[in-house]
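Most newcomers find our protein records easier to grasp once they have seen one. To make this concrete, we reproduce a full record directly below:

===
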Amino acid sequence: MTDFISPATFWDHSIRHFPGTHLLQTWEWGHAKAQFGWQPMYALWKQEGNALLLSEEDELAQLATKQTSIFDPQDISAAALILLRKIPVSGFAKRMCVLYVPKGPLLDWADSSQCKRVLSDLQTIAKDLGAIFIKIDPDVRSGYGIPGSSQDTPDQVGTSILDKLQSSRWRFSEEQVQFRNTCIIDLSDSEEELLARMKQKTRYNIRLAERKGVTIRCGSQSDIPLLYQMYAETSQRDDFIIRDETYYQTVLQIFQANSILQTQNQPAVQPLIAEMDGTPVAAVVIFLFAGKAWYLYGMSREAHREKMPNYLLQWEAIRLAKSLGCQVYDLWGAPDQFDESDSMWGVYRFKEGLGGSVVRHIGAWDYPIQPFLYRLYTQTLPRLLSAMRQHQKNRTKRLIG
């Protein structure tokens, strides 16, 4: 009798060995997005043959329980969590949809034949599902360092993939859902070396926070309302859009079901909260999986900002990730344009001070299946998103008002 293996365990185990594996390709991320109008599908490729597409969780569960005889995770050469979103449009007989592969697909992008096979299969999947288009956003690096600087180094694999996409009717997407660029901290060095790589001012601010009595504690599910309140305050102060509390509550609850001690096998999340005299003043939310850590959410209050709690928070997050065996800490986001005109310039300088190195990615690319509807969609979407963002900003303002 075959032992039961959960869909989550099977999928996460299957994708963790890919060099570019990412938090947004995990079963947990797909399960979270399923609560908000997306249908997760799971595509797997063996060394030979076409993709196996699993559109229902029970199909993944069946495959998981029979993995030893049908689909050994070690034999998987590519994988993709695909999110499907239906678009109800009056006047059309058939339902329409769009497909999105967040930070995927996962494969050896240096293998030209494998790359061609996976991209072709994704196009076929999109056609079979009647999609308007499919968007991919692989974690493929296009270069390192600030463009034009002495550290600017192109990535040869990324450059070849860009050429391949451009010559195969893929289009650079006007809607870049994730950050194209980010800052990475290599955790292979000792804590002393990590501190030494930081800017002098950053090290000073970490020590200042400690001297002023800032303390850091691990957060739990009971802290979610507190975290959201601080996040709402931060979004209003720094003028960016956040989702409703239910969204973050769902994401954190799904990922917190896993132990942070098992981050090599299962994705997990850990909030860290900075307090001053027992009062929360700032927080970060760190996700961990497959030897990597991601700083996705950060929040703070106006009170006690002069005591630099954000610096101590990041240092403790780095130490936590390192202690759990992570080799990389992704600070999640850097400017598109590396100058003061970019809205993320101040955030980048903060991350640079922590010793973060710039990594650039190829970004999101669309393959139009229905060109006319694709043009209509891309022309309408910016106006729709603008209205939705303004509505959400007003809701957040009322919440903290």
The chain has two domains: 7-178+362-400, 188-326. Residues 7-178+362-400 form a domain with the Aminopeptidase fold (CATH 3.40.630.30).
